[in-house]
Structures are given as structure tokens and as C-alpha cells.
Amino acid sequence: MAPGIGGEPESSDSLRTFGAVVQALREHHGLTREELGDLVGFSKHTIASIELGRRMPDLDFVEAAEAVLGNTNALRKALEHLERQPGLAAWFRRWADLERQAISLFNYECRMIPGLLQTEAYIRALAADQLPPLSDADIEELWAARLERQRLLYDRPNTAFSFIIEEHVFLRGTGGAEVTRGAIEHILAVSKLRNVEIQVMPLAQESHAGLQGPISLLETPKHKWFAYSEGHESGLLISDPKVVSTLQARYARMRSQALTLKHSASLLERMRGDL
């Protein structure tokens, strides 16, 4: 699965190891999956997915499970190992889980159109440049996974989505004029949703708070914030409040530096007309 344009990854060794620890502690305390689920507030199916290494453990699950399973600190320590393990697979799985329940989601992108806003043609253009090359089946899987994620924009009308996209992302012309035109038309359509705000960072910008790279932020229903950073063949979920606060401040500054919603839409319409 290609990083940056793919869906959720397969289970990793660290996820299976964490799951085995949960199972061992549960069985040591003589609990079934259903009984543990009742005690920690998760379904028996979620417990099974975690124990089998198919699901990244939720922070709330870890804290609740620690209290029920003897406060050994084993799960907290194991979770730290997961957070430090390099590789996109584990990171994206957990971010995707958080994304599905977020009440606020912010994304600044300077490399490509954000995944939640990509069209099928744009995704296929990105996939064509992946190395090592992807098979037709891989590309179909990428699009299906991305389309599933994009349902969040419509299925969660009470979630606030904010996107800041660099103007040069559109000027690059990924996939050619027709693909870029379609991408802009799609973004203009999505921007009309009440829960979505899309701003463009102009090419000529003397002051820019996001020069260090892309920023993804989200807020959970319990008002805890997380950030996500992705690079070549790697990704990092960030939960450190100090780091997340810094990224929030940068994103807030960029919202004031980018074009307004109205001016962003006008620029996109002009760019579409020029293609």
C-alpha cells in the first residue's frame, strides 16, 4: 500500500504483540472478551480486533484496561512502543480510527491536494508515479479506500473540516489540465458544504507560518487534540500536548495568512477557467 494515497494498512508485528499482551492479561484475570469489553466500555468485537492486532488501541481503551487488568503499566509501556515504531502502517491505522470520530479536523497541505478532497482521476495520477510501480488491483484498492474515507465529509455534518492548500499545488497540474480542472471543480463543490472551509495559501506570501511542512490536526469527542505528520515511507502520530499546541498555533496563524474563503473560491474559479 503506497503511503500518502492509500487506505488503512495491514496489521503490524507491534500491533499483534500489543494484542497478545492484552489477551494474556485478560486471561490471567479470568475474563472473557465480552466481560472485559463491558468493564472498559468497548464491544467484544473491538476487544477481539485489538487482541488480533487488527486495530490500533484507543488511548481511552488503554487507560480503562490498565485499571481493570491490575495497573501493571504494561499496556501503557507497550503503547509507547507502538508510538515510537517507525513506519506508516501503524500510524495511519490509528490516525484513521481517530479521524472517523473527530469533531474537528484541520489539514494544511503543500505537496498535493489533501486525501479527503482528491478525485478519482487525481488519485490515479498520483498512483501512476508511485515507485515501486503499483498494479491495477493496487490502484483500485487505493481509490476504494480513499472514497470510503471521503464519506466523512458527508456522513459527519457536525464535524468541522478546515483545509489550507498551497496555490502551487494546483499550478503544478498533476495529471494534466483535465485532471486538475476536475480536481478544482470537486473542491469548489465540497467547499459549499456547511461543515467545510477551504482556503488557498497564495503563491506570493511574505509571511508564512507553515514553512516546516504539512500539518494535520484533529479533536476527539473528549476534546483531546492529536497531530499527524507523514513523509516518505513513514508517518508519526503526535499526542504530546506541547507539540500539538505548537502546531495548532501555526495552523491558526496560517488561517489568517491564507486567502479568505470567498477569495479562495474566486481564485480557484479563475484557475479553473485558465485551464
From TrEMBL:
InterPro entries: Cro/C1-type_HTH, DUF5753, Lambda_DNA-bd_dom_sf. CDD domains: HTH_XRE. It holds the Pfam family DUF5753. SMART domains: HTH_XRE (SM00530). Residues 22-75 form the HTH cro/C1-type domain. This is Transcriptional regulator. One of its GO terms (molecular function) is DNA binding.
